[in-house]
Amino acid sequence: LWGIFIFCLVAFNYTMRVDLKLEELLYEAFVKDEFHPFFQAYVDSEIKEFIGAEVLMRWIKSDEKVIPPNLFIPVLERNRFIIEVELKFIKKIFSLFKFWQDEYKKTIKLSINVSAVQLSNPRFLEEMEKIANDFKIEKNIITFEITESYVIENVEAAAETMTKLKKLGFNISLDDFGTGYATLTHLKSLPIDVVKIDMAFIKNILVDDKSEIIVQHIINMSKKMNLKTICEGVETEEQYLKLKELGADIIQGFYFAKPIPLGEFEEDYII
Ligand code: C2E
Ligand code: CA
Ligand code: CA
To answer: Which residue, among 250, 196, 233, 257, has the nearest Cα to 47 in the 3D structure?
Structure first.
């Protein structure tokens, strides 16, 4: 038993030290401006045309190595540093958006992920209003993606922030829908515009009947509530055709487009 205890202690200590080291590196990355946006286009399921893109954060180190968000966002969330990183990141996105409008007369719909930690930041709403006004951005072009699990854990607080964001004019999408036991009541009581059906269901949609039934159900009930549905993680033509048949509004996934860096995105969709 003691052996196990000591092993756990050593392992815990090791994890703490690795995390601390990572925290330092992340702080440095913030100062050196190493957090960059990748863009994944999504399409209208009927006409298969590009209608907007999700912005996905990457940490690009000085040696050009690209680190995916799952490896660092949880650490940033744990020490709440995500608040500063995300605010700077969103500012960068809004300025890009403005640049595309001014320079190329292109208005691109963008979806931006917002961390649960950010939603509990009392400055967040003020900052968003200020940034949007500074850049003179039509707010209904921007959709904030908020993960369902957070919303369900903090329904009242989440509803309040979401209502205020909507009042400011932004759109709201409920991300990873279906994973956090959200119910019809939640959909009805939350001020959302879009339901983003979690990839896990899409992955199995042609494999098991249950996934298909769940997706069909989510799409039907969203339609009745005038909410748009996005299906993410669509990797094959068969999945796309099935989702189109089920009535999904928007499709996102490797089948149509992978997340790509800024330069490539500008070449493909803006210039
Ligand atoms: P998410 O918001 O659910 O984003 C979708 C993830 O699925 C992305 O991973 C995307 O690259 C990936 N994906 C898209 N299409 C497909 C597909 O067809 N097949 C498969 N297998 N995967 C697909 P990514 O970019 O690694 O992001 C992972 C998560 O990190 C995101 O999940 C989101 O929760 C978080 N994240 C990314 N950027 C930000 C950000 O700026 N702020 C915050 N707070 N979180 C972010
Ligand atoms: Ca998302
Ligand atoms: Ca998602």
So the answer is: 250
Ligand 1 close to Cβ of residue 73 (< 6 A): yes
SS (HEC) of 102-130: HHHCCCCCEEEECCHHHHCCCCHHHHHHH
User: Does the beta carbon of 198 lie inside 6 Å of ligand 1?
Assistant: no
Closest atom, ligand 1, to C-alpha of 38: 25
- 232 CA distance to ligand 3 centroid (A)? 7
**268's tokens:** 């493909």
Residue 148 has a pLDDT of 83
Residue ranges of the chain with pLDDT lower than 70?
A: 12-20, 182-184
User: CB neighbours (10 Å) of residue 169?
Assistant: 15
Identify the residue whose tokens are 């922030």: 161
Cβ 178 under 6 angstroms from ligand 1: no
pLDDT in tens, 174-207: 999 988 776 667 777 889 999 999 999 999 999 9
Report in angstroms the alpha-carbon separations of 204 from 131, 159, 236. Answer: 40, 31, 12
Distance of alpha carbon 254 from alpha carbon 247, whole angstroms: 20
